[in-house]
Amino acid sequence: MMEFDADLNACAGIVERADPLRFRASMAAPVAARRVLFPLYAFNIEVARAPWVTQETMIAEMRLQWWRDVCDEIANRGVVRRHEVATPLALAIAPEDAVLLDTLAAARRWDIYRDAFEDTAHFDAYIDQTTGNLMWVAARSLGPAEEATVRDAAYGAGVAAWLHAIPQLVEQGRVPLLDGTDAGVVALAEKARARLRQARANRGKISKAARAAMYSLGAADKVLSAAMASPARVSAGELPPMNDFPLSWRALSGRW
User: Fold this and answer.
1) What InterPro entries does this protein map onto (predicted)?
2) What distance in Å separates the CA atoms of residue 11 and residue 94, rounded to the nearest whole number?
3) Which terminal Cβ of the chain has fewer Cβ within 10 Å, N or C?
């Protein structure tokens, strides 16, 4: 028990340092939910940063493969390697969730290279397999939820976060958008906001317990609306912060 608590604290520390939005969201969730959210979000951080910690593509691939191997061990109910994130993650999720997290890690291979997205379907799949899989695993691990509603919400949040990252991605030599014109940015933000608002209209399909996974939506609606109103703010890095939202009200009301 002491070892698990130490691992959980380590996961919380990773999330607090690298992902303040999801740290706030987790701290607003019930204590029992944090035992799921902290390992899950810490896993996401480790996977997301694996392609960026080295310029050597082979080393980046090996780092991602290490986490994919962890997912394989969990999915096959095998002995999971001892690690401050992998160990509590194995206790927090089901084997079928590990398959989704493996897909998340595989999608992150795009981050290693400098190729553009092939088409809209490729971009949408990337957002769905990363943000979508993460939010869906979190939600269904906490309570009953409709998958389509969760994934609609995740798409809105994922695109909002992606628009925030555009300046850094461009600086790193990536091609983050299929259409980087003002019209292209507006169309993407409109699509994402429509899906986010559709999810909110269907919030009744998410149980109270699972709604803790939705707190990480942050200020996605505000970000997307700002990109629609002034697309130049995207490339200028002047979008509203994702972390600026009334979390205490969401936690008390159950609305997101």
Assistant:
1) Isoprenoid_synthase_dom_sf, Squ/phyt_synthse
2) 18
3) N
**What pLDDT is attached to residue 252?**
54
Helix (H, G, I), strand (E, B) or coil at 118: coil
How many other CB atoms sit within 10 Å of the CB of residue 228? 16
Cα torsion 81, 213, 46, 18: sign: negative
> How far apart are the C-alpha atoms of 144 and 68, rounded to whole Å?
27
Number of CB atoms found within 10 A of residue 110's CB: 19
Residues of the chain with pLDDT under 50: none
Question: What are all long-range contacts of 165-174, with beta carbons under 8 Å and residues at least 24 apart?
Answer: 166/234, 166/235, 166/237, 167/235, 167/236, 167/237, 170/235, 172/52, 173/114, 174/111, 174/114
Q: Which two tokens stand for residue 219?
A: 């200020």
Which pLDDT belongs to residue 235? 96
- Give the CA count within 13 Å in the CB-facing half-sphere of 83: 18
Nearest to 15 by CA among 42, 49, 54: 42
Question: Which amino acid is located at 125 in the chain?
Answer: A
